[in-house]
Amino acid sequence: MNHLREMLKVYFILGSTNCFKDPREVLAEAIDGGITMFQFREKGDGALTGVEKFNLAKDLQSLCRKKQIPFIVNDDIELALALDADGVHIGQEDEPASVVREKIGNKILGVSVHSMEEALAALKDGADYFGIGPVFPTKTKKDAKPTRGTTLIEELRRKGYSTPIVGIGGITTENASTVMAAGADGISVISAISHASSPYEAAKILRKRVESGEKGI
Ligand SMILES: Cc1ncc(COP(=O)(O)OP(=O)(O)O)c(N)n1
Ligand SMILES: Cc1ncsc1CCOP(=O)(O)O
Ligand SMILES: [Mg+2]
């Protein structure tokens, strides 16, 4: 867990409904471009289920393993355990974090939080990192909470909490540096990479922005 902060720098999330070409191709390019962590999130209209979902997850995990990129599963704890994934990400509408922590042992546990109260509860329940957002407007998650900018990230840092944090929601090469400046350890994106004409170039620029803190154009 020592390197969790480093691994969160450019955290790419993908499922088959987020891309216009084969997700395996998109992930392979994103890995070559420099993503540092990956989340399999198979959700939304037309999402795969059953054996098709399992097989896609297995293929994506195998791409991650070849390049030592941590592989996290969104929501589906049983899938994460079946694949021996590196961790899971859950939100406030998913299984309670305390129950998930019991099920997954010392695998990475990410929890979405939207307030100080949720953050403190998640810490008590064993969260390793927070996903905070949507920072900016997003079209990718239909049931996303209202956009709140970087206020919660700033509040947590101002109050001295050092828990690893990623900002999520509407993050692009242009605004990634704002999220880092607020105190995040990294940025989590779907469409900025999955919809890019070159997922390789998009991942490469995001990595550069996160590491240099430079504003994009
Ligand atoms: C890194 C990261 N942060 C937040 C989320 C959102 O999780 P959740 O609120 O459970 O919503 P869904 O992704 O399940 O629709 C995330 N997945 N990853
Ligand atoms: C999963 C999730 N949780 C909060 S916003 C969001 C969607 C992020 O997608 P994008 O990077 O395309 O805005
Ligand atoms: Mg969820």
UniProtKB/TrEMBL annotation:
The protein, known as: Thiamine-phosphate synthase
HAMAP family: TMP_synthase
UniProt-listed Enzyme Commission number(s): 2.5.1.3
Pfam family, one: TMP-TENI
Binding-site residues for Mg(2+), renumbered to this chain: 75, 94
GO terms for MF: magnesium ion binding; thiamine-phosphate diphosphorylase activity
Pathway(s) annotated for this protein in UniProt: Cofactor biosynthesis; thiamine diphosphate biosynthesis; thiamine phosphate from 4-amino-2-methyl-5-diphosphomethylpyrimidine and 4-methyl-5-(2-phosphoethyl)-thiazole: step 1/1
GO cellular component: cytoplasm
Family of this protein: Belongs to the thiamine-phosphate synthase family.
Gene name of the encoded protein: thiE
